[in-house]
Each structure stands twice: as C-alpha cells, then as structure tokens.
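**Backbone description:**
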Amino acid sequence: MTDTADPIAPAPATVGPASAEAPSNGAAPATPPLFDAERRATELAILDALRAVVDPEIGMNVVELALIKQILLGQNETEIKMILTTPFCPYAGSMIAQVQEQAESVVEHPVKVTLLAERWDPRDAGLMW
C-alpha cells in the first residue's frame, strides 16, 4: 500500500465462498471483523508517538510530513514503512532509530522500519513550496 493517502493499512478481510458458508456444526462462520477497534487504536497510538520524531532540517514531524506510509501490526513484530524527504537525508539513521524507539514504546515488541524508494512530495503533506 504505497499509493494511497491513508498511512494505515486496514486488516485484510476474508472474501470468498469459504467465508460465506457456516460450519456443519451450526456455529457461526469464523470471518475476521471488517473493523478492529483495538487494532485501529494501536495504530493511532503509534502515529501519535511518532509525532515526537522531528526532521531537524524542516522542523516538522514525520507524521505531518507524510513520511509514514504504512503500519503493519503483528502479534510479535510490527513493521513501519516510511520514506525520507530526500534520498541523501543526513539525519536518516537518527530518524529511523527514533521511529523504531517511539513505536516500540507503544507496542512493546520489536518494530522493523523499512525505507521505501518512493519519492517524497511536499503536496502529500499539504505543503506548497
């Protein structure tokens, strides 16, 4: 999910004939909920924590700058996919470490930060320079 405006990936829904059929024992089908409030609350808490990570050259945080592209929550590991304002950002290492630390303070398990090769566009953050 690198082409959408929403930086949070929704939980995948099961679609198909198997999910529509009830088991033979009469129990309800085991389809995951379309919206998981607890999962969404965790995603929002991570985004809130990431507001503490500021790009020192621009003076805005990574959320405001639309650098966080996706948060993939797992039970034992979370992955955050992000971009940088420039491929040669001198603060890349520091910002990646801060993103990891802030996210781990919310989920209390390992967080992997993946840099995407996508170019940053200031218009994604509502900036017009």
Observations:
- The helical segments are 17-20, 37-50, 92-107.
- The CA atoms of residues 23 and 111 lie 37 Å apart.
